[in-house]
Every structure is written in C-alpha cells, then in structure tokens.
Design brief:
Length: about 150
C-alpha cells in the first residue's frame, strides 16, 4: 500500500504497470469534473471507474483484496478513511474470480485518512476497506491488470 499526494504519482512509475497511460488520462481529463461511469483506457488491462460512494461507517466497510488488479483510488470530493490490513493476516475467504474480489469478515487493523489531492495504491497483498466517510465521497478508481 502506498499513500501519497497525487502530484507525486509519477514517482511510482517503476512499480505501476501502464502508469504512463494512467498519468496521461489524469493530465488530459479534468478528473474533478468527470461524469460517473466506467472509462476504458486500455481494454481489460486498464480502466477507471468514477463513482459516488454513499456515506459508510467503519462497521459497514468490508475489507477486500484483488488477485489480478492493482487499485489506484483517488478521492475527488471531500475525504475518506480507508481501512488497511495486510492480506497475510486475513483469514482465507471465497474469491470471486469474475469480479476479481475477495471480501473478508471483521474490521481493518488500521485506518488512514485520504483527502482530495491524494491517492491510495493497493496491491494484491493489501487488504483495504475503502469509502469510509460521513458525507459520502466522489472518487476515481483505476484498475490496472498485473
């Protein structure tokens, strides 16, 4: 897991597949004014979802992991907290191969505040519980095939 300011995303190019295409999308779009929906950038290899997440408490946020995709999550309005637990500490649960997601029972070990202008980068080994906010949050999530 990496948390940083969005302006420094390019410093992680060596560990993010297709990072040039992610950076180009961010540079060419007004991401703060994107309409909600899915944006295909490079087929199944790279796409982005712009979504409005309803208010969610820590108790409502489920820990999740992905086997095939890296997530770059960027809050576009307000801020959100994201739970984090290393996957190695989570009990094995059923993997949904079609949706590339495993949900886990219980709360995260740690919570990190992510504000507009920041990003969170989650690898397959990172259990994360995103979208925790009292007001809801508009966010952009890049899905990058590894």
């Amino acid at each position: 897991m990496i948390i940083d300011n969005l302006e420094f995303l390019d410093k992680y190019k060596s560990i993010i597949p297709l990072s040039d295409k992610v950076l180009k999308f961010i540079a060419e779009c007004d991401i703060n004014n994107l309409e909600l929906g899915k944006y295909i950038i490079d087929g199944d290899k790279l796409y982005a979802n712009c979504q409005q997440v309803s208010p969610k408490s820590k108790e409502d946020a489920k820990l999740e992991t992905h086997n095939r995709y890296i997530d770059i999550q960027i809050p576009l309005s307000g801020c959100e907290s994201m739970g984090y637990t290393p996957r190695s500490l989570l009990n094995e649960e059923k993997y949904d191969e079609i949706k590339d997601i495993t949900f886990y029972k219980g709360a995260a070990e740690n919570y990190i505040k992510i504000e507009k202008g920041m990003f969170a980068l989650f690898f397959p080994e990172d259990g994360h519980a995103p979208g925790i906010s009292s007001d809801g949050v508009k966010k952009l999530i890049f899905k990058i095939l590894i």
